[in-house]
Amino acid sequence: MSYRQFNGTDCDFYVTSKEVAETVNLAIALQRPILVEGEAGCGKTMLASAIAAELGLETPVSVTVKSTQQARDLLYRFDALRRLQEIQDPNNKRARFVYPYITLQPLGKVIHEGKPCVMLIDEIDKADIDFPNDLLEALDRFAFDIDDLPVQESARSLAAKGFGRRVTSPAGLRPIVVITSNREKQLPEPFLRRCLYLELNFPLEPELLAKIVKKNLDASVRQISNKLIDEAIKSFLEIRANSKGLQKPPATSELIDWVKVLHWEGGTPAKVRGGKLQPPYWRILFKTMQDLEAYTQRSQPPAEQD
Amino acid sequence: MTPQPPELVLYGVFRALLARRVPLGVVDYLDAVRALRAGFGSSPGREPLRRLARMLWARTDDERRLIDALFAAIPPPTTEEIAKAESVLSQGGQQPVAETAQPMPPGTASDRTGAGGTSMAATEPQAAIEFRPAAETGGLPLPRLALGAESAPETYVMQPQTVVTARTLAALWRRLRAFTRTGAKTEFDPEATLTERCRQGVLVRPVFRACRRNQARLLILADVSTSMAPWRPFLDTLARSLPLSRLQAVEIHYFANLPRRSLFATAELTEPEPFEKTCRRFSGASLLIIGDGGAARGYLSRRRVHETDDFLAQARQAMAPSAIVWLNPMPRERWAGTTAEMIARGNDAAFVALHRTTLFRVVDILRGARTA
Predict the structure, then answer these.
(1) B interface test, pick of A26, A34, A189, A195 with most B CB neighbours within 10 Å
(2) What is the pTM of this model?
(3) CB A180 within 8 A of CB A123
(4) Bridge partners for A78 per DSSP
(5) Tens-place pLDDT, residues A226-238
(6) ipTM exceeding 0.85, yes/no
(7) What is the pLDDT of residue B157?
(8) Which of A238, A228, A229, A239 is nearest to A209 (CA)?
């Protein structure tokens, strides 16, 4: 039994290039996690949903990493406070043992169940520097140890809850793991080596962009004219070409929002074309004050410059 | 199953990447073979193989460029070469191993049948890969060398590296010993007590002596200008190892290019302290200066030479150091024709190039060994 092929074009809300699809298929065949990096707003998180949709799996099990999390928190949780509270009651027999207070968290559950599915670990670079390394064993062998569970209780826990101190994955198809990173911090080398690296670049071809925009608009907005979309994309690519070096150059999600606004505010292809470097509502595309000011300077019509 | 030509090409590229110190392991190569057998990169031509190698083995832009360069440098095989390779492969294990291959664990040889492993090493001399110079593939240009100096074969390391670990440095600082007995007499002295007892005939009270304390003091002045940027990890490690040393007093102060009136307590050049004050505090201590003296960029500036000479004279006068060592991170061959050489010639402090092995000598000189 094996997973289906990922094509990048079959699902109805996501489209991507052939190289990306090839890398995803390679990672699935080699059972390696996929590390997705790229500009914010380029569709890193949606890639996991697209993979799940195309391969006929359920929605991905998604975990967004917080900066205070440790790797252990993704695998299991030991409710020590509850145990401490319950042990105050001398009649409570349950609190004598540790295993009733251990619950498996998303990644731990995925490993324990071993069902074919997609697991998404979002924004892994937000966490501590040791976080990815701590996850290495879990991602490599799909097995982990519950350190808080004493060895004597392992058999009891296995009988009562189905997992002992060492949680392993049943033989068979392993889940697909997709990890995204915003490049805020450098990731440790052993982790980078274990994963297959995928960089989502901003698509510069107008046809691909048009497909992406249409796929993202169909759900919320009907009957948006193709001409408006094409003009908006042309204008957008020019603005983006002029935004090199800005802190946050406009990306796909900004483009989609802009097209929506243009449609709602009654923009026409002619108006968009006539705006040159400053088409109507262009300010939506930028996110910081400095970027706005820098772009305003760059896009001033030459007649006004001295 | 004997290995096919695409596996040979990938094997050659893999070995070349290992030689360039890309952190790959046998697992990566085995995954490439598995991918080939699963059908990836199996379309005819080099291009799918190149894409496969990039996807699997490259994590940074440098590595991607390297893989592209390696593939571009492989000449396309002629039909005779393919026939020769296939005949060698079919002969199997009778070929002697041409060179000692990278030590591969026995698991890999048995994975691809024993014959496959040895015949791969035997055909390696045929798949010779030449490298084009870095300039053609868009690599970094060599920095300007001094006139008349031969360019030694150098490898360029793109990751910042530290020369020694903090632990090694701490062990080196422990060698900087100058034990003397000073301070309050708190330690029991058996010999003196016995002598006293023999002399007086009766033991009145035991004799105490002062404890041995390390009197070694060291002042480190480090250059943190931009030309010293590659050695910042080394300086950080040095700063971290200082609390682990058992010197009586050791401090590291920073300056940019040349110490002027004040030295700074942090590497970001904040918290200034007048140079005179630091010298007075460390009078009689050893002095260690870490700086490239213009050797990193190959400049020769006579004004800088004079200023450095003045600084060293001032330090000698204010501090009266027991030993001065100037540690230059650049190797000695690169000092020729630069400010560093002129400074070294004009002063009688010890000038040492930074290397794992020379640090031992540095500590010996600081301890008081002769510099000759």
Answers:
(1) A26
(2) 0.55
(3) yes
(4) A102
(5) 888 888 888 888 8
(6) no
(7) 64
(8) A229
